[in-house]
Design brief:
The structure is a homodimer of 430-residue chains. The first copy, chain A, is α/β, with parallel strands linked by helices and 430 residues long. The first copy, chain A, is built from eight helices and 24 strands. Chains A, B: Belongs to the MoeA family.
């Protein structure tokens, strides 16, 4: 009666899922709506930046050689022949001992090869002519931002798959991207299973709990860069449940179910996968929490069967769903980043399987510190609120002591990581 | 003619701005729209979690003492008297050698004090009665999640000012927050100044540049948790500009201008502050880039005059605007977090003033590494796209060499920091 499941290692599970990557197509959105989207195309410089030699300061453009004899005791005087603001271009060309008043960002006039900051000059007028004097010499090139020094025309600026941050936005604006090619977000469906589940707005009832997983996964999907679609709770009837999953697959790019993947009598998912003709990539992973996590593939679509326990569900999403969303978005480092960290507390439990311990990480004295938070039970929901990392304890290890170095998986790290994490490859055992 | 400005230290500048903190009021939003908002109220547990003793596994609830004699050679057999799914409650009470089939998450039936995982049992039927046998003893409490072990009723779960992450969402769902009290986002206006500015959609013209600052600041405002309001470009006419600023102040909670704060002939902002009767908190900061950053206060409102140079503008936003937005959102650590990091490259320039060097930080071998990116000129826009940190080099220091420890200000760090950063207090000089 009881189905026997063979657990596979985390490393192998992630690799199996990663084989079925899909990538999104392109859509154009206004620049102001593009924050935190992912570029669908490489961005190259279509002009030099700066587009012309310009002044980084307010001051006077001069011919440096005219200032050669200037010193504290010997002011050199220039005639101010023009006065240009940023955005304007002087039509004059500087002759000997001539200067042009110039604003920050303005184009260097012809003949000039240096800019003197306003603070280092003295100005005066005589007979309707403006003059400026300096008391130190300048060299050709002083205070000039040269054309192309920031970016040369044709140079590669941003790779597709780049997440659009405010700094990227500035670059896109500079190159005239009022509209930006970004990857269409995948739609990720969420179906909850579990006869014990109440709606979030329901009053508590004996033996029941509110459906926190769907709300949590909904938020995780947004954070991973996709569009969540909450498809409600599956019914207790197998045929209805099967029909609901079939229908959901038509509306979504990925489908997540929470709960129902265990071996209990009310766990429909294995039978639904079966009836779909789905290929089950695995239905047991040698990890805690989340060992019952199942991933299947049907009609070229990945079905993620996450555990009904909140922390197990969170870990399953982080390991398997998020990287596939990030791959869809063309990110070349789709996995969560990790760092070595110093454990702040003893963690005495042995780890027959790879263990993911909810933790809060922070920087202190040049090191990253990792503190386990709250209870380490997969049913715990309070500790998830504090966690910003999972401490990864390889299978086959004994307890850990405060001060030992561990690996922390950083939940909202932006640098990301390629697979495999070296720590997992090392710990994979047959 | 030339106005003399006295620079103040970064530390002092941040403190002056921080004196005028304002905090937002409360609005209620649906849970699914609350991601990355900030809680306006403390959240306490209004019930125990778990709300009842429950089973973390599929299996059988038993009286542990009945299994005392069980061993590999001596199976102890229990009669299965009931069968309950998650969400259901058994009305039976266990007697000696009786068991109840129980699902993950289901309430422990009366009389039972342990749960045996399904995998450790053998089941059979005889004469219409179901039996289950075990081959090892269990202890009272084995595999039971006790009422309140995750959170006790009345305990404090989340403080106001907490950023809502997926883990926080799970907790809010558990406690029935279908609607969540969050802090109303402040509206932050952006006015650009500069005769050289083209719209992002405009073709390039001689001497002009596209307005990348407004787009960048727009994105920074969203990332900081506020609502940006792009109010376009100020005109070249003083009276029109003054009227535009006056009008903007009515529609916004904070107002940012980019450019126009220098001492150039087209820099209107100082005169506008003057006509507004604004108190100028400072108009020069001993830092690079961004020394001309100005903050003024008029009609109980902060006016941020950021530099027109992209990197200087970015730094000014990070140091002065973001903390005020985060304070409005009740975050008790409103400043950017920082960490000690190892410099990967020489940085030979001396630092007469506090310098913020755009950098990319990453984790390697238990350390955070900081690599300066691109040009270190305040006009550089390409390097901002790569930067996720600013290396903070205290004023009065000489060049730095690869391998030295520096302080990195983490742009999108979520842990945040209180003021003062110890590094800045140490480096503040009179």
């Amino acid at each position: 009666m009881l189905e026997k499941r063979t657990p596979i290692q985390v490393d192998e599970a992630v690799r199996r899922v990663g084989r079925y990557k899909k990538q999104g197509d392109t859509e154009w959105v206004p620049l102001e709506d593009s924050l935190h989207r992912y570029l669908a195309e490489d961005v190259k410089a279509d002009h030099d930046v700066p587009a012309f030699d310009r002044s980084p300061y307010d001051g006077f453009a001069i011919r440096a050689r005219d200032s050669k004899t200037a010193s504290r005791d010997n002011a050199v005087t220039f005639e101010v022949i023009d006065h240009i603001g940023a955005g304007a271009v002087s039509e004059k060309e500087l002759g000997p001992y001539e200067a042009v008043r110039i604003m920050t960002g303005a184009q260097i006039p012809k003949g000039a090869d240096a800019v003197v900051m306003l603070e280092l000059t003295k100005t005066f007028s005589e007979n309707g002519t403006d003059y400026m004097s300096v008391k130190r010499p300048f060299h050709a090139g002083d205070n000039i931002s040269y054309q192309g020094e920031d970016a040369k025309k044709g140079s590669s600026l941003l790779k597709k798959g780049t997440k659009i941050t405010p700094g990227v936005t500035a670059l896109l604006a500079t190159f005239g991207y009022a509209s930006v090619p970004v990857v269409r977000k995948p739609v990720v469906g969420i179906i909850a299973t579990g006869t014990e589940l109440l709606h979030v707005s329901d009053p508590l009832e004996p033996g029941k709990i509110r459906n926190s997983n769907a709300a949590m996964v909904y938020a995780q999907i947004i954070e991973a860069g996709a569009v969540p679609l909450n498809l409600g709770k599956i019914s207790d009837d197998f045929d209805d449940s099967y029909a609901a999953v079939k229908e959901a697959m038509k509306k979504t790019d990925f489908l997540i179910t929470t709960g129902g993947v265990s071996v209990g009598d009310f766990d429909f998912l294995p039978d639904i996968y079966d009836k779909l003709g789905a290929e089950v990539l695995f239905n047991k992973v040698a990890m805690r929490p989340g060992s019952v996590t199942t991933v299947a593939r049907a009609d070229d679509m990945l079905l993620f069967g996450l555990s009904g326990n909140p922390s197990a569900c969170y870990v399953g999403f982080t390991l398997f769903v998020k990287p596939m969303i990030q791959t869809w978005l063309l990110n070349e480092k789709p996995h969560s980043g990790w760092a070595e960290a110093v454990l702040t507390n003893d963690f005495p439990k042995p780890n027959p399987f790879t263990r993911f311990v909810r933790a809060f990480v922070y920087h202190k004295d040049g090191k990253m510190m990792a503190s386990p938070v709250g209870l380490d039970k997969s049913s715990s929901v309070t500790s998830l609120a504090e966690a910003n990392a999972f401490i990864l304890l390889p299978g086959g290890t004994r307890g850990y002591e405060a001060g030992m170095t561990v690996h922390a998986l950083l939940i909202r790290d932006e640098n990301g990581s390629e697979w495999p994490w070296s720590i997992l490859s090392r710990s994979s055992r047959s």
